[in-house]
Amino acid sequence: MAYQALYRTWRPQRFEDVVGQEMITQTLRNAVALNQTSHAYLFTGPRGTGKTSTAKIFAKAINCHHQKDGEPCNQCEICKAITNGSLNDVLEIDAASNNGVEEIRDIRDKVKYAPTQADYKIYIIDEVHMLSTGAFNALLKTLEEPPANVIFILATTEPHKIPATIISRTQRFDFKRITAATILKRMEYILGQTKIPYDDQALKVIAKAAEGGMRDALSILDQVISFGNDEVTLDNALMVTGSVTKTDLLNYLKAVVEKDVPTGLQIIHQLLADGKDAVRIIEDLIEYCRDLLLYQQSPEMLAESELGMLDDDFKDFASQLAPELLYQMIDVLNEQQENMRFTSHTSIYLEVLTVKLSTLKKQSQVQNTTSVQPTTQADARIDQLMNQIHQLQSQLNSLQTQPVQPQVKRKAAATNRTKVIEVKVNYDKVNEVLNNATRKALNRFQQIWPDLINMLTVPQRAIMNVSKPVAASDEGVVIGFQYPYLCQKAIEDQELQDALTNGLSRLVDQQLNLIFLPNDQWLKIRKDYLNKRQSKDDSSQASPEENSEQTPEIITKAQELFGKENIDVEED
């Protein structure tokens, strides 16, 4: 049988095997045991923290007829088929390569059919944030009202890219980064089961390099095992991860603090000759300086996070440094790290960095000596500051005695400079809607308007929350905005218009033209339209005596457009 990577061989098959996510696994286990599962779930969190593995375990547990306390048996045909990926009722879809509307519509059509073998159809959509806007809209209705035997599990590393309308229809579980101690314990268990010898310090280096991802940790461990011929040593772990030993970091920082530039340059050149990456060297130096700062403030917390890797040399060095010097060193390291992104001569920047760090001690000494200057210099400085205060006080008194008139003028001038935004209006389209507008159509769109707004993204809702339909026909809708600026933003935002059109087509099952107007302009347009209709009616009346007891057509039309309660008829 072909060799399988460690992260695949040791992939969790039960909830209890998922490490570092106890709250989530306990909740899902109880939901299965009590038969209180939801129709849609959202798993979010960093890479390699168990999102997809948990989704597959949940799929097994809910379909296993022999589950106990919410855990799958992993022995029945259904469990084995899901583990092997051969069960047609459990589909794992990569949204990064299947992010179009057609793929989601295909899912929407197939959910109508009952499962063939299992009790539930499970759709696991990985990296769901990669779906297009159209695909999200196609998925929305299915998530809202799926068939009883269908469950969706959405997994993502970037939940902020998912529309709020999707999130609100799911149960969300946030997977957290796994602690280095938990990763270390898991690797020790795996190596103990496989009978592979290992160095404790090597596993600690790997656990820290994984940055909270169990999959990353096992991948690095796999590389170290292959590199070291089935043996895990500290040197091999440092070589694979590209990390620098704590001893080298300590010796380098000691050299620059003591202004020993030749020794510092020698250490840098030796690290580069050993194949260490220049960017990784700076990252390790920043982390080491950060550890020195944290140890000065909270030794117990740092000892726990560093897995007990703090030696006496580190502790002695931390006690010798002032926090201000460490702040300066971290600033210089960050600046140099940023500069190295745009060059291919990284070794030069490391050499310049060594010289810069070596000069910081001089600055620190200068600061210390200036703090003990003779009191005569301090008195002179105080006198200078007092003179500046008196000058500022005199200027303030003179300003207070000046009249307020210039300020009023400036304010008036600023008001005059403020221009009212005039939105360009297509009067033909507006009149086309008004000619066929009815109160029934307007009521219909006013009722569905809140649902349409909820289908938009948060920035889109911020624009449309100050709008509402003011006139409607079967072919189009006039949308009034409270603020002209937001109306202009809506007109210029094609993505917003597409989202509104797609949402309306789903809610009312027809394509409609949308016309955006500020409320001020809408009132003027409505008044002009009614005046024109009044003029037409007056010119078309054959006999005033015949129509004296009938309601004028213009009033009837206005009542149809805007409702009887909004129309007041006044006699001249």
UniProtKB/TrEMBL annotation:
Belongs to the DnaX/STICHEL family. One of its GO terms (cellular component) is DNA polymerase III complex. Residues 37-179 form the AAA+ ATPase domain. The keyword Transport does not apply. GO terms for biological process: DNA-templated DNA replication. InterPro entries: AAA+_ATPase, ClpA/B, DNA_pol3_clamp-load_cplx_C, DNA_pol_III_gamma-3, DNA_pol_III_sug/sutau_N, DNA_Rep/Repair_Clamp_Loader, HLD_clamp_pol_III_gamma_tau, P-loop_NTPase. Residues 562-572 have a biased composition (Basic and acidic residues). This is DNA-directed DNA polymerase. Its EC number is 2.7.7.7. Residues 533-572 are annotated as: Disordered. Signal peptide: none annotated. It catalyses: DNA(n) + a 2'-deoxyribonucleoside 5'-triphosphate = DNA(n+1) + diphosphate. SMART domains: AAA (SM00382). GO terms for molecular function: ATP binding; DNA binding; DNA-directed DNA polymerase activity; metal ion binding. Pfam families: DNA_pol3_delta2 (PF13177), DNA_pol3_gamma3 (PF12169), DNAX_ATPase_lid (PF22608). CDD domains: AAA, HLD_clamp_pol_III_gamma_tau. Keywords: ATP-binding, Coiled coil, DNA replication, DNA-directed DNA polymerase, Metal-binding, Nucleotide-binding, Nucleotidyltransferase, Transferase, Zinc. Residues 375-402 form a coiled coil. Residues 540-553 have a biased composition (Polar residues).
